Each structure stands twice: as structure tokens, then as C-alpha cells.
Task: structure prediction
Amino acid sequence: MFKNNKTIPTVLWGFFILYLTLRPKSGSPSVLPDWIVRLHPDKIAHFVFWAIWMVIFQITYLRKKYPFSKSVQFSQKDLHLSQLKFAICAIFIGAAIELLQLYLNWGRSAEWLDLLADSLGVVVVWLARLAYPGGGSINSKETQLR
Result:
């Protein structure tokens, strides 16, 4: 299934997200203070978890593509196309999760703002990578994108 074990972190984080978003909701009431509840920590968590997923993909993609190179040179088109494909896939997974929450009777409710937060997490990291192509790579000072 995995031709290169460097894809495992991305897949594991995806399963971790699936577990957190689809597990049956506990019946215990929230113990968060009102000021935190007003900040919508659920939406912040969605944004952060999907952003982390995109970062993990970017890091593992670079290491998978060029595992031993200290000076990585590859086309921006290749990198951007791979990131775009993953971003679209992650957003579709977020939509599928919301649909599953809608139809499964596990105490979860589908909220389209969750999907918006998921999408924003992915898109913000993708846009940051476009704006700063050398940042966050294997060796950012030695990595050159063409």
C-alpha cells in the first residue's frame, strides 16, 4: 500500500482527523469558560488540524521526492500541482466528514462552517507555501525551487 514509508505521517494524521471528527460525542457538558466558547474553539481546531495536515503533506512530499538531496531542485509546477491535488482531496474529505456527521446518528452535527474552517486551514498553508517557496522545506536555505 505504501511504496515509501514517508507518506505514513500524512495518512496517520488523516486517520487521526477522521477519528476525532467521527467518534461518538460524549454526553458530558462542556467545561470551557464562556469567553473561550465565544471564540468558537471548534472552528479553530478544524482550521489548525487541517493546516497541520497540509504542512505534514508538504514536508513528507519533499522528503519522499528527494530523500537524500541537500540541495533540492525541482519545478514549482510539480510542487504546486501535487499540493493542489492534496488540497482538493483534503477539502473533499472534510466535506465527506460533514456529510457522514449529518447522516450518522452518533451525536455529531454537520456544520458547514466546519468545512469552511477545514478549507481555510488547507488554503492558508498552501498560499503561504506559494508566497514563501523555500520556507518549511527540508533545508530551507539550501532548497531552491525553479
About this structure: The longest helix spans residues 76-103.
